[in-house]
Design brief:
CATH superfamily: SGNH hydrolase
Order of helices and strands: HHEEEEEHEHEHEHEHH
Structural class: alpha/beta
Radius of gyration: 17 Å
Largest sheet: 5 strands, parallel
Mean pLDDT: 86
Number of strands: 9
Number of helices: 8
CATH architecture: 3-Layer(aba) Sandwich
Low-confidence stretches: 1-30
Strand content: 15-25%
CATH class: Alpha Beta
Length: 229
């Protein structure tokens, strides 16, 4: 695997690392052991038991971060990892023909049909949908189509950050948080707060896709969200 730039991460992601590697409980704060790069070591223990397998569906943010995500999951004790990220992927739109990627819904359907049945699911979708719909109800309907396909499994959904559609991004993220709370057995990995923070250097020059620092920060956020399930 390609080495991660440790110095760059430490300079840009110290705040993220602190948040992701510290867990609060009723008895106080306990520190999770980490690798030198900050990846949590040991089995992910949620309230539903150990998470030993993960299925993840995402867009280009997932696609570009897949190697780091896989490393983070395996380091955290996940024995079986299924990651399917594709550039320009949308939640509902996309038949996989030509340059159009298969939609998130169809990708998830295919994974389920292939027998993928992980301890928890991670969804990183919505970036390519914000700005394409007018109402909160429309975004909610998109999210519901995914959640109804995996009703009984722990779920982490990564919220989105798209600078050119900040108003629509806010609507999507608000609806997502409401849907995850109402669903239960779910958590939001707050990528928006990290990607939009002025003191973080986690994005490439396009202000959308994570750079190496961002890929590691994203991985830490997801692992931390899985621990909170």
């Amino acid at each position: 695997m390609t080495p991660i730039d440790r110095r760059g991460f430490l300079a840009a992601g110290a705040a993220v690392l602190l948040a992701a590697c510290t867990r609060r409980s009723s008895g106080g704060t306990s520190t999770i052991a980490t690798t030198p790069l900050g990846l949590p070591i040991g089995t992910i223990q949620s309230s539903h038991g150990a998470i030993t397998s993960v299925g993840m569906v995402g867009d280009s943010i997932t696609e570009g971060s897949a190697e780091v995500l896989r490393t983070a999951f395996i380091t955290a004790g996940v024995e079986d990892v299924h990651i399917d990220g594709k550039h320009s992927r949308r939640i509902e739109v996309g038949n996989g023909k030509g340059d159009v990627p298969l939609s998130g819904i169809r990708t998830l359907y295919n994974m389920l049909a292939d027998g993928v049945s992980p301890s928890a699911w991670v969804i990183e979708l919505g970036t390519n949908d914000v700005g394409s719909y007018s109402t909160a109800d429309e975004y909610g309907a998109l999210i519901d189509q995914i959640t109804t396909m995996i009703p009984n499994k722990p779920l982490v959904w990564v919220n989105t950050y798209r600078k050119q559609y900040l108003d629509a991004t806010a609507v999507f993220n608000t609806v997502l948080a409401q849907r995850m709370q109402a669903r239960g057995n779910a958590a939001v990995a707050d990528w928006f707060s990290v990607a939009s923070a002025p003191d973080q250097t986690v994005l490439r020059g396009d202000h959308l896709h994570p750079n190496e620092n961002g890929q590691l920060a994203l991985s830490l956020l997801i692992v931390d969200a899985l621990r909170k399930l």
